[in-house]
Design a protein that fits this description.
By secondary structure, the protein is an all-alpha fold. It is built from 13 helices and no strands. It has helices spanning 2-14, 18-29, 41-56, 59-72, 78-97, 101-118, 125-141, 145-155, 164-177, 181-188, 202-213, 217-234, 240-253. Helix 4 packs antiparallel against helix 5, helix 7 (125-141) runs antiparallel to helix 8 (145-155) and helix 7 (125-141) packs parallel to helix 9. It is globular and about 60 Å long.
Length: 261
């Protein structure tokens, strides 16, 4: 029964119904335990609840909870190890949102090593793609845009509809960081993402940055306003992307100094 409930909650998460998914996962995690199992359904429920909070934009709020869960998930068997890697990947997203790029890079690289060790036991390509996107974002944050471009461009061909939007936006961002704005716009316009709620505003934001880099302020303002509207509608007010959109909008309209690359 708990596995069925967990599957239903994961479906809610994939549908972008974050509030329902997190509330249900926390209820499941607090349910009385039966006999000891590894991994216990409560662990999976807590991983889903914290991961949903991160996707929604409340990463800083659950960072301590993520770190506690990582410590509890001693990887004594491969299944528990995979769950720990998933939780660590969610923690990496929080580090990115806090602009702790060096830590995020180190964590992403270590998670990828763990994925490699387990790849012969279970399919982990979707987790690997998520971590690679995190790594590329961390490299962008550290000004290593060429490396980020290579990661995003090299992995786009094997991305599915749930991961292609993120990698695509990261590729555009990496091109912006190299001041290759015309190319960034061309890349952005080759693809229209299906739309994961967690990616709300992401592509419009990097498109706006490219337009701003080209001095096309009116178009940039329209793109960034659309990004900000999507973020405010779909994400928590504390989401890092919402802050980025507001900062870029301020730069485009001349209300604030340019936030830089």
């Amino acid at each position: 029964m708990r596995q069925d409930t967990l599957a239903r909650l994961k479906s809610l998460y994939r549908a972008g119904r974050y509030e329902e998914a997190e509330a249900g996962a926390r209820a499941l995690a607090s349910a009385p335990r039966g006999f000891r199992r590894r991994p216990a359904p409560q662990w999976r429920a807590r991983a889903l609840a914290t991961g949903t909070a991160v996707a929604h934009g409340r990463g800083s709020e659950v960072l301590a909870e993520l770190e506690t869960l990582i410590a509890e998930l001693e990887p004594v068997v491969p299944e528990v190890h995979v769950l720990q890697l998933v939780v660590r990947s969610n923690r990496t997203v929080v580090l990115l949102g806090q602009e702790r790029y060096e830590e995020a890079e180190a964590e992403a690289l270590d998670i990828l090593r763990g994925v490699t060790r387990l790849a012969h036991l279970t399919p982990l390509w979707r987790l690997e793609l998520h971590v690679l996107d995190n790594l590329a974002r961390a490299l962008c944050g550290r000004g290593r845009h060429e490396e980020a471009e290579a990661i995003a461009r090299g992995n786009l061909p094997r991305a599915d509809e749930r991961s292609v939007g993120a990698l695509h936006a990261t590729l555009v961002h990496s091109l912006n960081g190299q001041h290759r704005y015309e190319e960034a716009l061309a890349v952005a316009r080759r693809f229209t993402p299906a739309g994961e709620r967690a990616d709300s505003g992401r592509l419009d934001l990097v498109v706006g940055a490219a337009l701003y880099g080209l001095g096309r302020r009116d178009e940039a303002e329209a793109a960034v306003r659309q990004a900000l509207s999507d973020c405010e509608r779909n994400l928590h007010p504390d989401h890092a992307r919402t802050r980025e959109a507001r900062a870029l909008l301020g730069a485009v309209t001349g209300e604030k100094e340019d936030p830089g690359e």
